[in-house]
Design brief:
Layout: H1 5-26, H2 33-40, H3 54-67, H4 75-82, H5 85-89, H6 96-104, H7 109-128, H8 135-158, H9 162-177
Helix pairs in contact: 1-2, 1-3, 3-7, 7-8, 8-9
Length: 185
């Protein structure tokens, strides 16, 4: 039975969304093509009609994850949401950089390129909503703040002490929103 173009597009989107959740929750190596297709509610045999390989799926999934970001992010509000215990405990729906950054460095050139493009796009969005007098000040604030957020999130997730995890997130949030740390708007 022939599938309509609309259904093909919808199926591809389901595959990408399922892959994103699974990859972030379990990592690239612990997820099989069969796992992704099952999570998407599709048969394993149909996978190659959508992607050339698992590596191709990884690269497209990373590109898809970052494409969903809003146009501009207020840095302080983003930090409040990002550096929350809710985000810390929900890896599958959270930040791809905190969940997959280290793993992506060992993936294909296409996957690394997709992550690099995503990083650039995200930094542009954060820079637009950062404090600073100049574009360079705003970009510096965005890069430093996001690097601190990702690092704090990774450390909070590694810790088996919930109090330490909460402290890491709270202190990083406070440091980011500290008006003395960066120049005013």
């Amino acid at each position: 039975m022939k599938v309509s173009r609309e259904q093909v597009a919808a199926n591809r989107q389901k595959i990408l969304e399922s892959a994103a959740r699974l990859f972030k929750a379990r990592g690239f190596d612990a997820v099989t093509v069969a796992d992704v297709m099952q999570a998407a509610g599709l048969t394993h045999g149909g996978f190659y009609g959508y992607f050339k390989s698992k590596d191709d799926l990884i690269a497209h999934t990373l590109a898809q994850i970052f494409a969903a970001d809003p146009a501009e992010l207020d840095l302080a509000r983003y930090a409040e949401s990002y550096l929350s215990m809710r985000h810390c405990q929900n890896v599958a729906d959270g930040c791809p950089v905190a969940a997959l950054g280290c793993e992506t460095s060992r993936q294909t050139a296409e996957a690394r390129a997709a992550m690099t493009t995503g990083l650039r796009q995200h930094l542009e969005r954060l820079s637009a909503g950062a404090r600073g007098r100049t574009t360079a000040d705003k970009r510096r604030a965005a890069i430093g703040s996001w690097a601190a957020m990702v690092g704090a999130m990774i450390m909070a997730r590694y810790s088996d002490d919930p109090k330490l995890s909460e402290e890491l997130l709270a202190q990083t949030r406070a440091w980011i929103v500290d008006p003395k740390r960066t120049p005013p708007h």
